[in-house]
Amino acid sequence: MFLLSWDPAKGKLRGQAKLGKLLRAAVLIDLQLNGNVADDNGRARVTTAAAPTDPVQAAVLEELRAVGPRRWRHWIDRRTHTTVRMVRDELARAGLIKVEPRRVLGIFPAARITVRHPLVRRQLLNAAHDTLRPSRLVSRVDLRDASIAVLAATADLRIVISKEQRLRHKDRLAQLAVRVGPVVPVLKKSLQQSQYSAGG
């Protein structure tokens, strides 16, 4: 989701205000698909499955384990800035992005991010778009690919799923969201609440 949030035309991340929650939701979905976390009546419960090797997933799973079962919303809204930094640092360590420190207005610390392998981003984008093809049965779509499309649509990340695509494939995205699991509707509510709070 981090790579897909990067706009190659503008050379910067899009939707940064939503990125933390989006990444938290993506990690939770990954943990659920891995079998590390299960839905327990609206709460995320850690299972006895072997811990993931991915450092970000492992860190979030450790948070869940330390605190105990909480509602999904609790985990989506928690430590969002830290998660963005962790994901960014892991992508940099893997050589997928380059992070260059800079200052905005000569004062505020920031980072210039460059995607080093645009083909990887393109493959992720194609996989997300492929899940929307009507010829593919919803039940046969890879859940990780489906989660990319559904998360992007939920967060209104138009660089991945355009407004027109979202409207045209509304029913299919809803069906895919059901397959992806409980995190998606909770993310939607969390983002709506943030938007409402910001506007109010």
UniProtKB/TrEMBL annotation:
It comes from the Bacteria. InterPro entries: GPP34-like, GPP34-like_sf. It is a peripheral membrane protein. The keyword NAD does not apply. It is found in: Golgi apparatus membrane. Its main location: Golgi. It holds the Pfam family GPP34. Keywords: Golgi apparatus, Lipid-binding, Membrane. This is GPP34 family phosphoprotein.
